[in-house]
Design brief:
TIM Barrel; Histidinol_P_phosphatase_HisJ
């Protein structure tokens, strides 16, 4: 089955206004038989989005409309493509209870979801790790160096994987190596392999899947798939199910670099 399991929508405040129909028709044209829409879930109650425009996720007031539009589209296109209703849910250290409460309420309406880490807590404050290179540099300084920032990132991902977010906790881990986003500017010498192995072991216990996310290839300072091939091979060895995701924020990127994924898995 050819599926794009990580696709954003016009509900994304930092994405494009491309319509759902345009995303869906692009997927059909590129020969996909399934697509999961995974808009950034509303951030948990009490969490203040640290990005300047506070546009990391859809506002809470949009969630009902998002779900009902997708339910209609799912019926409308059912002969052409399987549309899965999903969300990309943030794991935020310290907001587990609020996130679980949200999932308890909205999880029953979801077919398929992703758990991702975009926010890290440093000196009691939250920062968005993939926002831009300046924020990244500041985060590295506050951490005491790039290697320490990598360590904090992987420790947070591990915490997310083992966290109790209730029965609707997403089954797929998003872009496990997002910390590589600015790697051409800031090179780490941190040995991430032991963390990755530990994360895989915990994912395995929970039957979690891995998002193989090609968006890093479209980022100037990354130039690499999330995760790179050696980590994909390590996941295969652990029998972790791999799910292709374009992480498209515009219709033209649906299915992007799928052939690369096919070659690796
Ligand atoms: Zn996004
Ligand atoms: Zn993401």
């Amino acid at each position: 089955m050819k599926k794009d399991g990580h696709v954003h929508t016009p509900f994304c405040p930092h994405g494009t206004d491309d319509s759902f129909e345009l995303y869906i028709e692009t997927a059909i044209k590129k020969g996909f038989s399934a697509i999961t829409f995974t808009e950034h879930a509303p951030l948990p109650e009490g969490f203040v989005d640290p990005t300047p425009d506070k546009d990391s996720a859809m506002p809470f007031s949009d969630i009902d409309r998002y779900l009902s539009i997708l339910l209609d589209l799912k019926k409308q296109y059912k002969r052409d493509i399987d549309i899965h209703i999903g969300l990309e849910v943030d794991y935020i250290n310290g907001f587990e209870r609020e996130t679980a409460q949200f999932l308890d309420k909205y999880g029953p309406f979801l077919d398929d979801s992703i758990l991702s880490v975009h926010f890290l807590k440093l000196n009691g404050q939250y920062y968005c790790v993939d926002f831009d290179e300046h924020t990244f540099q500041k985060m590295a300084e506050l951490s005491g160096g790039i290697n320490h920032l990598y360590e904090l990132y992987y420790a947070t991902v591990l915490k997310g994987v083992v966290s109790d977010l209730g029965k609707y906790k997403p089954k797929r881990l998003g872009h496990i190596t997002l910390i590589h986003k600015f790697q051409k500017l800031f090179q780490a010498t941190f040995d991430e392999k032991p963390y990755i192995e530990q994360i895989f072991a915990e994912m395995n216990k929970r039957g979690m899947e891995l998002d193989v996310n090609t968006s890093g290839l479209r980022k100037a300072f990354c130039g690499e798939i999330y995760p790179p091939e050696d980590i994909i091979q390590a996941a295969k060895k652990q029998s972790i199910p791999l799910v292709y995701g374009s992480d498209a924020h515009s219709a033209k990127d649906v299915g992007s670099d799928f052939s690369l994924f096919e070659k690796m898995v």
